[in-house]
C-alpha cells in the first residue's frame, strides 16, 4: 500500500504539448517524482521477457491506447518502488474509465494539470523532435492518429474532471509556460 499522504497530479495535454518538458521543471522546484506513462510503456516494451512488448509497440505506432490494466500496473509498481509521496502522472489517464479505475485502485488525484495547445503547434514540435527522437510514433501518419485519439477519447477526461482542472496555455516559450505552471503548484503546495 502507498503512504497515506501520497499526492498525485495528472499531467495531461495533447501529443507534443510539452508535458514531459514542464514536468522536469516541476520536479526540480517542487520535489515531485515524474512518472510518464508513455515512458513506462516504452520501457516495458524493451524489457526482456515482457509478455506485452509487441502489443505495446503496435499500439503506440498506431497512436492507440494500451489496455489500462497494463498501464495502471506499471504506474502503481513504479510508485511503490519509488517510495516517495508526490507524483506527477504524465500522459495518463487517456480515457475516462482509466481515470476512474486509477483513482479507485491507487489514489485519487489532487488536481489535473492540462496543457492546452493547438494541433498545428503540436505537429510542428513533434515533427522537429522526430528528426532525432527515434520514437516510432513521431512521424506524420502516427501523429495524425494520435491527434484523433486525443480529440475523441482523451480530451473527454479533461471535461470529466472539470472543476479539478488547472489549464495552462502552451503556446508560449518553455519558460513562459513554466511561469504559469509554477503559480499553480505554489497555490496547491504552499
Ligand atoms: N517543446 C516543449 N515545450 C515547448 C515550448 N513551450 N515551445 C517550443 N517547443 C517546446 O515536448 C515535445 C517537443 O516540443 C519537444 O521536442 C520539446 O522540446 C518541445 P514534450 O515535453 O516531449 O511533450 P509531451 O507532451 O510530453 O509529448 P509526448 O509526445 O510525450 O506526448 P504523448 O502524450 O503523445 O506521448 P506519451 O509518451 O505520453 O504516449 C505515447 C503513446 O503511448 C500514446 O500515443 C499511446 O499509444 C501510449 N500510451 C498509452 O497507451 N497509455 C498511456 O497511459 C500513456 C501512453
Ligand atoms: Mg512526454
UniProtKB/TrEMBL annotation:
What residues form the membrane-spanning segments?
none
Give me the comment on cofactor binding: Binds 1 Mg(2+) ion per monomer.
Q: What is its EC number?
A: 2.7.4.14
Tell me where on the tree of life, at the top rank, the source sits.
Answer: Eukaryota
Provide the alphabetized UniProt keywords. Answer: ATP-binding, Cytoplasm, Kinase, Nucleotide-binding, Nucleus, Pyrimidine biosynthesis, Transferase
- UniProt subcellular location: Cytoplasm; Nucleus
Stretch list, region LID: 128-138
Which positions bind a ribonucleoside 5'-phosphate? 42, 64-66, 91-94, 98, 135, 146
Q: Which GO terms describe its cellular component?
A: cytoplasm; nucleus
Q: What is known of its domains?
A: Consists of three domains, a large central CORE domain and two small peripheral domains, NMPbind and LID, which undergo movements during catalysis. The LID domain closes over the site of phosphoryl transfer upon ATP binding. Assembling and dissambling the active center during each catalytic cycle provides an effective means to prevent ATP hydrolysis.
User: Which family is this sequence assigned to?
Assistant: Belongs to the adenylate kinase family. UMP-CMP kinase subfamily.
UniProt subunit comment = Monomer.
> What's the protein here called?
Uridylate kinase
Amino acid at each position: 500500500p502507498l503512504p497515506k499522504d501520497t499526492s498525485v497530479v495528472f499531467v495531461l495535454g495533447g501529443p507534443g504539448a510539452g508535458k514531459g518538458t514542464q514536468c522536469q521543471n516541476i520536479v526540480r522546484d517542487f520535489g515531485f517524482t515524474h512518472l510518464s506513462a508513455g515512458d513506462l510503456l516504452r520501457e516495458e516494451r524493451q524489457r526482456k521477457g515482457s509478455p506485452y512488448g509487441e502489443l505495446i509497440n503496435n499500439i503506440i505506432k498506431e497512436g492507440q491506447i494500451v489496455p489500462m490494466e497494463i498501464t495502471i500496473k506499471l504506474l502503481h509498481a513504479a510508485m511503490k518502488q519509488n517510495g516517495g509521496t508526490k507524483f506527477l502522472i504524465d500522459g495518463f489517464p487517456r480515457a475516462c474509465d482509466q481515470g476512474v479505475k486509477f483513482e479507485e485502485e491507487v489514489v485519487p488525484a489532487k488536481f489535473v494539470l492540462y496543457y492546452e495547445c493547438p494541433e498545428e503547434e503540436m505537429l510542428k514540435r513533434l515533427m522537429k523532435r522526430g528528426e532525432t527522437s527515434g520514437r516510432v510514433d513521431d512521424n506524420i501518419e502516427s501523429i495524425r492518429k494520435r491527434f484523433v485519439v486525443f480529440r475523441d477519447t482523451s480530451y473527454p477526461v479533461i471535461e470529466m474532471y472539470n472543476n479539478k482542472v488547472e489549464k495552462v496555455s502552451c503556446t508560449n516559450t518553455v519558460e513562459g509556460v513554466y511561469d504559469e505552471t509554477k503559480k499553480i503548484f505554489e497555490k496547491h503546495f504552499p
